[in-house]
């Protein structure tokens, strides 16, 4: 709908009026507060390290909740100071350049007046403190803008539904206080603005989509009824974007009760944390906490085992030749990630309630204090009605008493006298002070030899027994390792607890599992089941502070892992975002063609599923090409932004390949594409490409340990490119040698769908069947 000059002048006048008022208020506030900067970001660097969670005893329980409370208190105190001082200012700074992006005119039923509602990233009241010059995009009335079309319309408020008529819907792009773009629009958010936004170049940071949120995305953002929200969406459909907007929405709606540090996002890799870290600040909000599942696993078991991470597992599988090892590995991963194994472990735990618990003896200086048999006897002597984890607690208390008994006896031993002689003056002084404190000052002297010896002996023995006490307190006497091993060593036991279902390749799986554990390692597929067993025996370590857990790339999680996350955050709601087509890991059968596992997690009645089918990232041509690779891909709807068709070039040798790639990257740069990626299959290939081309191109190598994304030309392994995007993607080698196994289809798809504007594939020899099977009209074959 065309707008005339008068409309432009009127709207610009209003913009001038609003920005003028914002500027005045900003200036006044600046003078008041200065800029307060907290060290909140520092504090949040490692979520798991900051919060000690231990629930193995009532003491620990107290300690844990104190630790949690203290940690969250420290955070919230500093944040409060930080927020109060700078929050308003931050918002005003954002508003002064671009006060709003939308307008709706709405006549409420029964009201004579039509209200003009302007939407921006924060509310701004006129000097009367009553009139909204700008409404926050998250205010109830704002949902009209995202959901409704001119005509009859309604929106939800806490007080009920408000109906009326939308007379007008207008969009703006305002920069530096000037209206750059303005038009009236029909159904939802006009495609014109989206066209503009999407045709921009990418960089190393994700952007907020607040001005162009689509109706179905708005449903994701504002959904707050269900315990579990599952968002299944095509590559580039805005799952991550919507999730971040949703965090901002929740922080606004529940601002009295929900703080940013009660929201936790599980990212696919550490780099992703940095990629999304600017979105919330762009919206004037504090960032939520971010972590990776691997960081959690390391936090829990990293001291005990050398843990394989998902990337090393992927690398090993991608590089392996077809053969017995790979076959067994695949079977092992598939089985250990399955709900059946989860149930098997649960049944194993039920069996352990009656028999089979394994303990490590309590020893001191090579001498036995309590044998494993004595522990077993004691353990199964406790009331069988008491929960297993509580019986472990009871056993712990008993062991501590036994240890105290032992300590008493031990004080008489000659080695203690030897140690007393060796005490240095400091330690001696410490003992003396302690004695004075204990006995009261008046008759406390060290003249009494007997008393002195007994006190010093007590101190020495206590000191020497400290590690044993700690070991008991941490319930290390429960031999989880032996019990997990037993499951794989003892076929009869396995058959019993698995209800007679041995997995494929059972012998090899069992052998490999035990071998790896005995080397002090845990394969990625074993880590969560192992933890699950451990926690079933010792009690789960829960975090009651977090109220919202977001899991991005949920298709990369096994049922085990999801069950885990659910259990450790019992007070949290979950938002899970995923794409079946991008399940690249061997264990990712979670969505496995259906959403059943996810729906079961909290029960169907508590679960809502929203599907996003429109893909925004890539041009129509790229989406049309990539969706042809996936069964059911027709349901992915490309956004109507056009560009060049994907390009395929077949080359005969590596030298030729490298020449073409260098030339292509230079061409792309000349065309204005700054943020490009050469996507390799593995880290090994990535390393090779980087070393081969680094003299000729300014390349940046991305590895799993790279902490943050950067702009420029990146060389990156396929599986690390998850979730991110580039102006142009160069697939280093799309040949049938590189991508042929069915299990690699999703990996190839994921790599190709990272491209926004251009996709170039090189093939050393015959192209992969994933390309050959596509209608040649959908790409250009360069010769
Ligand atoms: N409503 C929107 N307005 C503007 N841009 C959008 C919108 N929705 C998505 N986009 C853009 O599309 C691109 C893809 O979004 P995002 O990364 O959130 O998708 P995704 O579904 O998480 O993708 P993937 O699963 O492939 O990682 C981003 O550049 C994002 O800014």
Automatic annotation (TrEMBL):
InterPro entries found in the cross-reference section: DNA_helicase_UvrD-like_C (IPR014017), DNA_helicase_UvrD/REP (IPR000212), HelD_bacillota (IPR048228), P-loop_NTPase (IPR027417), UvrD-like_ATP-bd (IPR014016), UvrD-like_helicase_C (IPR027785)
EC annotation from Swiss-Prot or TrEMBL: 5.6.2.4
SUPFAM superfamilies: P-loop containing nucleoside triphosphate hydrolases
Keywords tagged on the record: ATP-binding, Helicase, Hydrolase, Isomerase, Nucleotide-binding
Reactions mediated catalytically: Couples ATP hydrolysis with the unwinding of duplex DNA by translocating in the 3'-5' direction; ATP + H2O = ADP + phosphate + H(+)
Pfam families attached to this UniProt entry: UvrD-helicase, UvrD_C, UvrD_C_2
UvrD-like helicase ATP-binding domain ranges (all copies): 212-619
This protein's record includes keyword Hydrolase: yes
Binding site for ATP: 233-240
GO CC field: cytosol
Molecular function, one GO term: ATP binding
GO biological process, any: recombinational repair
Family matches, as NCBIfam families: HelD_BACSU
Name listed for the protein in its UniProt record: DNA 3'-5' helicase
UniProt source species: Paenibacillus albilobatus
Gene: uvrD_1
């Amino acid at each position: 709908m065309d707008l005339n000059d008068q409309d432009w002048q009127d709207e610009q006048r209003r913009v001038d009026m609003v920005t003028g008022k914002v500027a005045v208020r900003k200036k006044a506030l600046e003078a008041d507060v200065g800029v307060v900067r907290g060290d909140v970001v520092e504090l949040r660097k490692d979520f798991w390290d900051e919060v000690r969670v231990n629930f193995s005893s009532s003491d620990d329980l107290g300690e844990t909740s104190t630790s949690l409370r203290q940690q969250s208190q420290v955070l919230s105190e500093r944040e409060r100071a930080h927020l109060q001082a700078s929050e308003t200012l931050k918002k005003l700074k954002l508003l002064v350049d671009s006060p709003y992006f939308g307008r709706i005119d709405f006549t409420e039923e029964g009201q004579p007046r039509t209200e003009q509602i302007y939407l921006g990233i924060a509310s701004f009241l006129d000097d009367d403190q009553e009139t909204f010059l700008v409404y926050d995009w998250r205010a109830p009335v704002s949902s009209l803008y995202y959901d409704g079309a001119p005509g009859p319309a309604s929106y939800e408020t806490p007080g009920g539904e408000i109906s009326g008529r939308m007379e007008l819907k207008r969009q703006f792009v305002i920069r530096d206080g000037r209206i750059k773009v303005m038009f009236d629009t029909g159904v939802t958010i006009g495609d014109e603005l989206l066209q503009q936004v999407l045709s921009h170049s990418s960089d190393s940071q994700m952007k907020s989509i607040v001005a162009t949120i689509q109706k179905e995305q708005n449903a994701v953002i504002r959904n707050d009824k269900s315990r579990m929200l599952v968002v299944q969406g095509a590559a580039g459909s805005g799952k991550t974007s919507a999730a971040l907007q949703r965090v901002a929405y929740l922080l606004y709606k529940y601002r009295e009760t929900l703080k940013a540090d009660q929201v936790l996002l599980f990212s696919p890799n550490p780099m992703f944390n940095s990629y999304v870290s600017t979105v919330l600040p762009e919206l004037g909000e504090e960032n939520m906490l971010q972590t990776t599942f691997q960081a959690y696993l390391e936090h829990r078991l990293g001291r005990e085992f050398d843990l394989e991470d998902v990337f090393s597992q992927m690398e090993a599988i991608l590089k392996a030749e077809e053969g017995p090892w790979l076959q067994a590995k695949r079977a092992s991963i598939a089985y250990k990630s399955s709900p059946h194994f989860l149930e098997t472990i649960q049944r194993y735990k039920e069996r352990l309630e009656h028999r089979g618990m394994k303990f490590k003896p309590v020893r001191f200086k090579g001498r036995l204090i309590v044998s494993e048999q004595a522990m077993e006897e004691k353990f199964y002597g406790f009331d069988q009605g008491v929960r297993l984890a509580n019986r472990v607690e009871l056993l712990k208390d008993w062991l501590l008493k036994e240890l105290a008994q032992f300590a008493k006896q031990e004080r008489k031993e000659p080695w203690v006298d030897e140690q007393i002689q060796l005490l240095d003056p400091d330690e001696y002084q410490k003992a003396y002070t302690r004695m004075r404190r204990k006995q009261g000052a008046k008759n406390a002297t060290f003249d009494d030899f007997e008393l002195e010896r007994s006190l010093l002996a007590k101190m020495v023995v206590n000191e020497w027994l400290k590690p044993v006490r700690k070991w008991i307190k941490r319930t290390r006497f429960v031999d989880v390792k032996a019990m997990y091993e037993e499951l794989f060593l003892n076929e009869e036991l396995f058959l019993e607890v698995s209800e007679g279902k041995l997995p494929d390749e059972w012998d090899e799986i069992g052998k490999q599992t035990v071998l790896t554990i005995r080397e002090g390692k845990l394969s990625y597929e074993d880590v969560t089941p192992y933890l699950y067993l451990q926690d079933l025996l010792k009690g789960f370590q829960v975090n009651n502070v977090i109220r919202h857990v977001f899991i991005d790339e949920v298709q990369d999680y096994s049922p085990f892992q999801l069950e885990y996350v659910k259990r450790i955050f019992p007070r949290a709601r979950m938002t899970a975002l995923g794409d079946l087509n991008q399940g690249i890991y061997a264990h990712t059968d979670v969505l496995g063609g259906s959403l059943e596992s996810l729906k079961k997690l909290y029960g169907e009645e508590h679960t809502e599923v929203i599907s996003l089918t429109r893909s925004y990232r890539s041009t129509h041509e790229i989406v049309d090409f990539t969706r042809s690779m996936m069964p059911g891909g027709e349901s992915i709807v490309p956004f109507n932004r056009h560009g060049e068709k994907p390009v395929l070039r077949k080359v005969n040798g590596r030298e030729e390949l490298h020449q073409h790639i260098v030339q292509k990257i230079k061409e792309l740069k000349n065309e204005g594409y700054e943020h490009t990626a050469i996507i390799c299959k593995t880290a090994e290939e990535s390393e090779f490409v980087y070393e081969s081309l680094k003299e000729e191109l300014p390349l940046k190598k991305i590895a799993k340990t790279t902490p943050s994304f950067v702009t420029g030309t990146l060389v990156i392994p396929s599986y690390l490119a998850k979730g991110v995007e580039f102006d142009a993607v160069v697939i280093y080698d799309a040949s049938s040698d590189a991508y042929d196994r069915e299990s690699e289809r999703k990996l190839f798809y994921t790599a190709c769908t990272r491209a926004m504007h251009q996709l170039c594939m090189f093939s050393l020899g015959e192209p992969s069947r994933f390309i050959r099977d596509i209608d040649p009209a959908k790409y250009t074959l360069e010769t």
